[in-house]
Amino acid sequence: MKVIITEDYEEMSRKAFEIMVETVKNKPDAVLGLATGTTPLGLYGKMKEDFKANGTSYKNIKTVNLDEYVGLDGSDKNSYASFMRENLFNGLDVDLKNTYIENGSAPDAEKECERYNEVLSGLQQDIQLLGLGSNGHIAFNEPFTLFGTEVHVVKLAESTIRDNARLFDNIEDVPVKAYTMGPKNIMRAKKILVLASGANKADAVYGAVKGEITESLPASILQLHPDCILIADKEAAARL
Ligand code: GLP
Fold first, then answer.
1. pLDDT bracket for residue 90 (50, 70, 90)
2. CA of 33 to the centre of ligand 1 (A)
């Protein structure tokens, strides 16, 4: 794994932007694996600015998102589908028909997992962006998820519900389950770009880079990927 330590969040976002935009320029019909959370917001802001200023086009780009809350329709303001439209897609020329994510309001969860697995099997990510949960989760793969798992429904860890409550009006509104790509879907990406910022990610970053490769820390599987770059600001990298 290649590790880049930056002075701050801004520099982390800028370096991530350089990698992302290079992928898009080299391959205008690339498949981008995208993530939610506050960590990638700086990167997404830079992609939108660059589109406005330089016209880097996303019209033939396809995107696949990592995860979605079970029970939230894509029109719900707290769904990850809305998050992506508001924080990225609305500022680019991406065709929304080419943006893929689990359907949080699907009537049959098992069928929805099968459907999304099939979508993913036809769309290998040229690059997969990842954040880290403070407990070392990637997407919504909580500790002890088997590394061979594909798209599935998870019961969210208490710590994840607490971490994500800040994005909801009340902690009671945070769904308790989510759809997520499994480690296996993530590891299939040609390149993986992990971003981490802030002291509360320091343990997860340590586990991802230097810890034992173990299902108790899902991000540790990234050590096995042949082309993984982790960009952490100095607070997140404090334990390296
Ligand atoms: C959620 C998402 C993850 C994300 C994590 C960290 O749990 N499912 O994909 O990496 O939050 O979020 P943040 O970037 O806000 O710290």
1. very high
2. 14
CB of 101 shorter than 6 A to ligand 1: no
Please confirm, yes or no, whether 135 is among the known catalytic residues.
Answer: yes
Cα(195) to centroid(ligand 1), Å: 10
Output phi, psi for 52, to 5 deg.
-65, -45
Question: How much of the chain exceeds pLDDT 70, in percent?
Answer: 100
Q: Which of 240, 194, 208, 217 is closest to 40 using CA atoms?
A: 194
Q: Is 133 in the pocket of ligand 1 (CB under 6 A)?
A: yes
Strands 2-6 and 99-100: unpaired
* Cβ–ligand 1 contact at 182 (below 6 Å): no
Contact status, residue 191 vs residue 227, Cβ threshold 8 Å = yes
pTM of the predicted model, to two decimals? 0.97
Beta-carbon-side half-sphere exposure of residue 221 (alpha carbons within 13 Å): 28
142: annotated active-site residue: yes
Q: What integer best gives the mean pLDDT of the chain? A: 97
| The pLDDT value given to residue 167 | 87
The whole-number pLDDT of residue 47 equals 98
User: How many CB atoms neighbour CB 110 within 10 A?
Assistant: 10
On whether the CB atoms of residues 3 and 232 are closer than 8 A, the answer is yes
Query: From CA 173, how far away is CA 176, in angstroms rounded?
Result: 9
DSSP state of 199: G
Q: Which residue has the tokens 């798209």?
A: 151
Closest CA to ligand 1's atom 13: 37
